[in-house]
Amino acid sequence: DAPSQTLAEAAPFPIGFAVSPASIKSNAPYRQTVIQEATSITADVAMKPSRISPQKGIYNVDVADQLIEFARSQKKRVHGHTLVWYIDTSPNWLKQIRDSTDLESTLQTYIQTVGTHFKGKVASWDVVNEAVDNNRGAIRKDSLNTVGKTLFNVGKILGDDYVARMFQYAHKADPNARLFYNDYGQETRPAKLSAIVNMANDFKRRGIPIHGLGLQMHISIDTPNEGIENAIRKSAETGLLIHISELDIAMNPGKKKDFAETPELLEKQYQKYKFVVSTYKKIVPASQQFGITLWGVDDGTSWIPGFCQCLDAALPFDANFGKKRAYQGFLDGLK
Ligand code: G3I
Fold first, then answer.
1. Which ipTM value was assigned to this complex?
2. Using CA positions, which residue lies closest to atom 17 of ligand 1?
3. Catalyses which reaction (predicted)?
4. CA of residue 208 to ligand 1 center, whole Å
């Protein structure tokens, strides 16, 4: 049977998609799907520092502003992503800074300028993205050797407590925005999960303005349910808002070249979507449910195949915007 409700209609909390403004403009079924199914949107790259400030002192906000205008006209919430990210989405000019005083004031100015520009237009920000190391659960301080290609190591230059200061800058720029710390892999990396939870509790004790935790949740059909539940539960115990901020569920975690979708894999994906959504709904108190955002709209435009150099189909909509079993899994998880 065809589902009778959209995700937005069925959910008691916001449902989001990460979107590309170009696809919203040029791809009618993509736009239609966002309009019908979502109540919240996140820009997939358009609000990252590399797009907003490709050169020092230059701020290109036009694309983001157009997306925000689309959201406003369609009455969708906008979640800002992201003010600070150590990785390659930071513009090259910023990655070249080595002096801690210079870097601190540059980031402060960036956050002040961008936060002020989008004030009242975004509900929330991922203030710092992916600052915690995968295994040790410490603030990332990777070598600076690869700067210019991949890493921009703000943790190494500014020290562990930079994350707290970025939240203070963001709060000053937009006192009404809900401020999130966003990261991935909490469901399979216990040291990372505890480090994030401890950091959040420490911020609360010290009066650092943090309001939420984003669990990206880029998982697969093989990700153990216990880990997913544990990550959601421990994060929710902080009392902060919880955003499943970048959900997708890969069917080809082994990145096999001969991957083919089978009814069995689609069924596993159905089960996993249902599990994530029902667990979020059950475990996170309603007052802390910031919502669930899917990282992309459809399998045809998903980031995963480009990244893994393999075939995959991790979203609830197929490349023709048809509703997959995964879509029904999402709906069943909401019941
Ligand atoms: O727009 C240009 C295009 O003009 C150019 O021809 C093309 C050739 O390389 O690149 C296009 O830009 C790409 C952009 O995505 C637009 O799709 C960038 O190279 C590419 O690096 C960028 O990748 C994005 C990645 O973050 C880095 O910013 C992915 O789309 C986006 O899905 C991904 O999102 C991240 C979250 O921000 C944080 N969590 C993980 C998640 C997945 O990696």
1. 0.96
2. 45
3. Endohydrolysis of (1->4)-beta-D-xylosidic linkages in xylans
4. 31
pLDDT tens digits for range 50-81? 999 999 999 999 999 999 999 999 999 999 99
Domains of the chain from N-terminus onward: 7-334 (3.20.20.80)
Please report which residue ranges of the chain form alpha helices under DSSP H: 7-10, 21-26, 28-37, 49-52, 62-73, 92-95, 100-117, 154-158, 162-173, 190-206, 225-236, 263-283, 304-308, 325-334
- pLDDT tens-digit readout, 306-316: 998 899 999 99
Asked whether 128 and 166 are in contact (CB, 8 A), the reply is: yes
Cβ(303) – ligand 1 distance below 6 Å = yes
**CB distance 144 to ligand 1 below 6 Å:** no
Ligand 1 near 44 CB (within 6 A) = yes
Predicted local confidence at residue 153, as pLDDT: 83
Q: Considering the chain, what is the average pLDDT of its residues?
A: 94
* Catalytic residue numbers, as ranges: 246
Question: Both tokens of residue 100?
Answer: 């801690």
Q: How far is the CA of 21 from the centre of ligand 1 (A)?
A: 13
